[in-house]
């Protein structure tokens, strides 16, 4: 990267391990604020478990509400880690270095939060877990292995396992570094996690090979997870859900929201931990360029989904699409999706001076994810509200205070876990930053000296 400052190894180590050694005042504010919202989340879930799922107001035909919308949203956010880490690692994109770890951690916490929602949604999760594990095959009750609802947990658990291994493999050298600079319980923890790392040639070779192999192996899982989540809807007969375009549409939407969430995280880390030397304006510039392409791809599939619903001229599809586009409150929601998801952020990102403005990138990334959450709601709910032809089967959906608390609590849960992680482990990969400094060279081209990255293969 052209704007990298020349920093010594000791300086990099000291600055990137600083969040482990000291706690800024804003971090305490974050812990207290997010902890308060989490307390409301726990109370809401406990209240629902005590009184039953009826307190949410969910009833036929609206059996899915905010919790499933939130499940799809967090699965989408989890795509940021692989997009930033695996793909950019394989393509040797230099600007990935300061954001890979945060993106990988966000992937894991987002997946864990997403998995929580279907379990909570059962209303009596202990009964669900009791009857499902171990599965009762002796009664000849066989699940339909052709259904995406069976593939869903397999794909998500595989993605979670792969992402955790991927993150852990890249953290081992930093664990050894923290082991050598701490005492007490931290030293014991880092000693165990470092797996005897001494930094010899063989260990570096094995770590590099493992990183590249996991990057390649996790890519098919990355595509399959949100494709399978989309098939949960696409294989049903609910109007406007039964669309062949759902798989690529969900994947591109997931990347749009996930990479935008990484921008939000980059800005917060830069402000909270004073990482200006590592998360530089050129990183926001590069990721802003990527988001222009991703956002435009998402808009194309969004319009394609509308077109595919209208094209067959089926009465039920047209009715739901008219409901989505022209009737309250979904007409307002449609406008918000367009405005927040594309028409405000993307034209702003076209200009380099805005891409290099951290505050503007932060707020536009927030707008994208507001729009993308609304898009998930827009996709799922209207079809359920008017699922049947008889009017006495129609029913409106209004989210209850319990569901709203669970949605807000899920955001607090991911934020809280990220803060806890930053307090225990380096939020930016120390060894990757040192590696970037090692590769950075200055080359003379004619009369000018330019910054360059030089690697030996």
From TrEMBL:
Keyword tags: Cell membrane, Membrane, Transmembrane, Transmembrane helix
Top-rank taxon, per record: Bacteria
Transmembrane segments: 28-51, 63-90, 102-120, 156-177, 208-229, 249-269, 290-310, 330-351, 360-380, 400-421
InterPro entries: NrfD-like
Topology of the protein relative to the lipid bilayer: Multi-pass membrane protein
Keyword Cell membrane: yes
PANTHER family hit by this protein: POLYSULPHIDE REDUCTASE NRFD, PTHR43044
Identification of the protein by name: Probable molybdopterin oxidoreductase, membrane subunit
Species for this entry: Thermomicrobium roseum (strain ATCC 27502 / DSM 5159 / P-2)
